[in-house]
Write a structure and sequence with these properties.
six-stranded mixed sheet; alpha/beta; 32% helix; 12 strands; four-stranded antiparallel sheet; 8 helices; 258 residues
Length: 258
């Protein structure tokens, strides 16, 4: 696959793939982290990347959103060839990224954090930015927390502000790298609940996660990575219920404690 030729057909409409990777390799020094990965993500699809630590999941995600560069191979995101470094900046502002850590400015309110990029990057007026920012906070259930500072918010609320910040830019794709790993267990549900709502709204999403219940219930496709390759992928009911690979079975047995 050398272009965005992967498609999803609905009636007579054929939409280009949101993401298409072909033969992607990545090395950090002597360690080869990705070993020729081929993967595509269709518009509106929710893909979860699962696997043990060190399997290459987060590196693959970071390459998709141009936080890391592949050493070789082709990477297309939202129709832009990221392997063409002159064109790669075209995706800026069109993809949203949510990290493990919330990365909020402590001296700014929730609304201030959400509107900052709208003011500085999109050059909206303050009134326009605040209108969009309040709408994004409402979308994640935090309309009443616009004037709160990060220190006044729980971890789950801070992560939802981070999601609102990304959503305010109106991205075509949302990337999540272990968005619940820094949260207390009782706060995980409020973040995955927002992510489920985004999935129901048709947002294209790629999620690195250890939240297997979320992966099973929400994803359109589960991708199991091991040793820098995609070892197995398919509908969650197949990957979780009847995995074909012994390594997938071993991993799921351990994480699901069955």
């Amino acid at each position: 696959m050398t272009t965005t030729e992967s498609t999803k057909t609905t009636g007579a409409t054929v939409a280009p793939a949101r993401i298409a990777l072909s033969g992607v390799h990545k090395r950090f020094g002597a360690l080869e982290v990705l070993k020729g990965v081929d993967i595509g993500v269709e518009p509106g699809e929710v893909v979860v990347l699962i696997g043990a630590s060190g399997s290459g999941k987060s590196t693959l995600l970071r390459i998709m959103c141009d936080l890391e560069r592949a050493d070789s191979g082709e990477v297309w995101v939202n129709g832009v060839p990221l392997h063409d470094r002159k064109r790669a900046p075209e995706i800026f502002g069109h993809v949203g990224m949510v990290f493990q850590q919330f990365n909020l400015f402590p001296h700014k309110t929730a609304l201030g954090n959400v509107t900052l990029a709208l003011l500085k990057v999109r050059k909206l007026t303050r009134a326009e930015a605040e209108e969009r920012g309040r709408a994004a906070l409402a979308r994640v259930g935090l309309a009443d927390k616009a004037t709160a500072y990060p220190a006044q918010l729980s971890g789950g609320q801070q992560q939802r502000v981070a999601i609102a910040r990304a959503l305010a830019m109106d991205p075509a794709i949302m990337f999540f790298d272990e968005p619940t790993s820094a949260l207390d267990p009782e706060l995980v549900g409020e973040v995955t609940g927002v992510m489920r709502a985004l999935a129901e709204d048709g947002m294209t999403m790629v999620v690195v996660t250890h939240e297997m219940r979320f992966a099973k219930d929400t994803a359109d496709r589960a991708v199991f990575m091991d040793g820098g390759v995609v070892l197995e992928q398919g509908p969650p009911e197949q990957v979780f219920g009847n995995p074909a690979e012994a390594r997938t079975q071993q991993f799921l047995h351990r994480v699901l404690d069955t």
